[in-house]
């Protein structure tokens, strides 16, 4: 059996956009859960959410971002942090002995909602555009 070494960590979350911010929030008992007015407008029973406070367009090239839903974009940024934190060189990252473990609370439902609205308003799924499917994945 081979040993595993965790060399880097990255995180984008409602309580911080890197490991140091998240640790500080946890130590002070800070919650990232807030009231979501848009949920109230739609009549949802639960009207709170935890949304990372980060402008994705400031960190990810728009040509790449168009293929990502918010969840995938948060994971991408966390992956970049983990690689930087690891100190690994590019050749070491792209290696059969290097792996990545990531997690997410679920898909980007905002993209499903947006796709549904386009179909209702425009009357055809073709109007969603070529990138909506990948953003919903």
Query: How many domain regions?
Result: 2
Calculate the terminal CA-CA distance, rounded to whole Å. Answer: 34 Å
Number of strands: 2
Mean pLDDT: 88
Helix-strand topology string: HEHEHHHHH
Structural class determined from secondary elements? mainly alpha
Quaternary state, please?
single chain
CATH architecture of the largest domain, by name, is: 3-Layer(aba) Sandwich
CATH superfamily of the largest domain: Thiolase/Chalcone synthase
Strand content: under 5%
- Please summarize the sheet with the most strands: 2 strands, antiparallel
Roughly how many Å is the radius of gyration?
18 Å
Number of helical runs?
Answer: 7
User: What is the percent of helical residues?
Assistant: 40-55%
Low-confidence residue ranges: none
Task: Describe this protein's structure.
- There is one protein chain.
- The chain has 2 domains: 105 residues, Peroxisomal Thiolase, Chain A, domain 1 (3-Layer(aba) Sandwich); 31 residues.
- The chain is globular.
- It has a two-stranded antiparallel ribbon.
- Helix content is 43%, strand content 4%.
- The relative contact order is 0.14.
- It starts with 18 loop residues before the first helix and ends with a helix.
- The longest helix has 17 residues.
